[in-house]
């Protein structure tokens, strides 16, 4: 990249960006909204529903798995932060892959991250439908709930980005408040002693039933794909860069909350739950939070928690619809997707891309109809492998960017990742180990079968685009705002 291009990038997306943000988006997301989007992005189905299966597979050692994976996530987020401070753009991972690896890498990353959120949307409406069964049982079919939620959340994404940010702020506030409240209740049971669980509640539950590793080290390793799925979406803050009011200040603050976020909401919450209720009482497919309150004899508390986890699933799906529209538009602006996706509404919303993504999420309704019992397992495994591709690209791009910046070829970032590039290499090796573990898990192996087919489809599509002369090489340039729909 030439010095002129670097200057153009920073003028278009740096601190001096105008309110009518880069690429035609409106920079209306404030600091508190970005903070809560970052916090809430990591609190969803993976924690509230997936943890039940993970606890049954690993027991209390799941706490260690979350702590180790959380450290790796912090390395990934700091690598992303370094790239974002170099050039904060809405295309984010796809844009960086295009610049530091090549146009094909940007093409694959953009479409794979889009697919990740489509599949995650299916996952979240599946979870939401399962949570509704807590109140209605079998009186209302699971697929019908999935259909209703998909349509409602699509409608919510027709609003402006400012209202989207406000909704996500309050969605996240509900989740955060609920988890902190649950931790305090569990702490009260352990110290003061109340509820039906008081007689057996003790920190010794962390090692009494078969030890801290009741299923062995192997059992703990086999839960890593579930654990990593729980952290998927933390990188969503990078997609908001093009619509953040002051990315140079808000994004580093949001990223630096990762350590205490993981310590409190994952490690802290699991320590409390597994201390109050022995791990042998948890089952796959049932939220450990709901199960814990029922064990305590607090039926009302279980109903409240079920409502909170329902909110968490819908919030995550809502974020997915937000992300897919932006990713499709970035691809289209760079000649790697249909031009139709470049159009914005007057409120700065990529309506066509969001509509296309939401229509594909209706596949989740069909999955819930034909296989309601296995729907969650199927989509979790595929979402994990596609989501981790974005993390791999972030780490590789950060390593390449740091090397070029150290040589003076590019301006340095004001938010350098500590310990990089070694921490980035460690995170890459960890992700590689998780992929190997997925190959050893018969439930997760399906995603590894699907990945080559998806790669082949992308390769053929890219050849067609190259043949038609559509894909631009190198880094993408700040795009002009497309005309609002209907103007």
TrEMBL record:
Name assigned to this protein: Amino acid permease
Pfam family of this protein, just one? AA_permease
* PROSITE patterns assigned to the protein according to its UniProt record, in alphabetical order: AMINO_ACID_PERMEASE_1
Location within or outside the cell: Cell membrane
Keywords for the protein's UniProt record, in alphabetical order: Amino-acid transport, Cell membrane, Membrane, Transmembrane, Transmembrane helix, Transport
- In this chain the Amino acid permease/ SLC12A domain maps to 34-466
Q: Which organism is it from?
A: Streptomyces toxytricini
**Start and end residues of each stretch annotated as Disordered:** 1-22
Membrane topology of the entry? Multi-pass membrane protein
Regarding protein family, the annotation reads: Belongs to the amino acid-polyamine-organocation (APC) superfamily. Amino acid transporter (AAT) (TC 2.A.3.1) family.
What are the transmembrane regions?
Answer: 36-55, 61-80, 100-123, 143-164, 176-197, 217-237, 258-277, 297-317, 348-367, 379-401, 422-440, 446-465
User: Where does this chain mainly localize?
Assistant: membrane
InterPro entries from the UniProt entry: AA-permease/SLC12A_dom (IPR004841), Amino_acid_permease_CS (IPR004840)
């Amino acid at each position: 990249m030439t010095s002129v291009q670097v200057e153009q990038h920073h003028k278009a997306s740096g601190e001096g960006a105008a309110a009518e943000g880069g690429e035609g988006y409106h920079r209306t997301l404030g600091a508190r909204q970005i903070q809560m989007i970052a916090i809430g992005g990591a609190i969803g189905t993976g924690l509230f529903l997936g943890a039940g299966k993970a606890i049954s597979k690993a027991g209390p050692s799941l706490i260690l798995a979350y702590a180790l994976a959380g450290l790796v996530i912090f390395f990934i987020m700091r690598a992303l932060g370094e790239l974002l401070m170099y050039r904060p753009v809405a295309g984010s991972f796809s844009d960086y892959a295009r610049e530091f690896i090549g146009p094909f890498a940007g093409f694959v990353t953009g479409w794979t991250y889009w697919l990740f959120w489509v599949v995650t949307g299916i996952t979240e409406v599946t979870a939401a439908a399962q949570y509704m069964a807590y109140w209605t049982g079998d009186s209302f079919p699971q697929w019908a709930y999935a259909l209703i939620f998909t349509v409602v959340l699509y409608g919510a994404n027709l609003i402006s980005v400012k209202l989207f940010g406000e909704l996500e702020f309050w969605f996240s506030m509900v989740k955060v408040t609920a988890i902190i409240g649950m931790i305090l209740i569990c702490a009260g049971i352990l110290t003061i002693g109340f509820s039906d669980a008081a007689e057996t509640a003790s920190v010794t539950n962390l090692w009494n039933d078969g030890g801290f590793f009741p299923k062995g080290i192997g059992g703990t390793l086999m839960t890593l794909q579930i654990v990593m799925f729980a952290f998927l979406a933390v990188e969503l803050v990078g997609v908001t860069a093009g619509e953040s009011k002051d990315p140079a200040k808000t994004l580093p603050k949001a990223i630096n909350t990762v350590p205490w976020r993981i310590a409190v909401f994952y490690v802290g919450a699991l320590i409390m739950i597994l201390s109050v209720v022995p791990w042998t009482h948890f089952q796959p497919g049932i939220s450990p939070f709901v199960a814990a309150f029922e064990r305590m004899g607090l039926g009302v508390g279980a109903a409240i928690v079920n409502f909170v986890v329902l909110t968490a699933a819908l919030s995550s799906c809502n974020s997915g619809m937000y992300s897919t529209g932006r990713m499709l538009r970035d691809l289209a602006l760079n000649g790697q997707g249909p031009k139709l996706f470049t159009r914005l509404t007057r409120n700065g919303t990529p309506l066509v891309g969001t509509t296309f993504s939401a229509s594909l999420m209706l596949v989740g309704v069909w999955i819930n109809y034909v296989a309601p019992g296995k729907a969650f397992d199927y989509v979790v495994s595929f979402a994990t492998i596609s989501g981790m591709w974005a993390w791999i690209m972030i780490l590789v791009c950060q390593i390449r960017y740091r090397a070029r910046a150290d040589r003076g070829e590019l301006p340095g970032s004001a938010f350098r990742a500590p310990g990089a590039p070694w921490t980035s290499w460690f995170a890459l090796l960890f992700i590689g180990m998780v992929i190997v573990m997925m190959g050893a898990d018969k439930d997760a192996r399906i995603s590894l079968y699907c990945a080559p087919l998806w790669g082949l489809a992308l390769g053929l599509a890219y050849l067609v685009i190259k043949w038609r002369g559509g894909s631009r090489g190198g880094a993408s340039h700040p795009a002009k705002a497309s005309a609002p729909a209907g103007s």
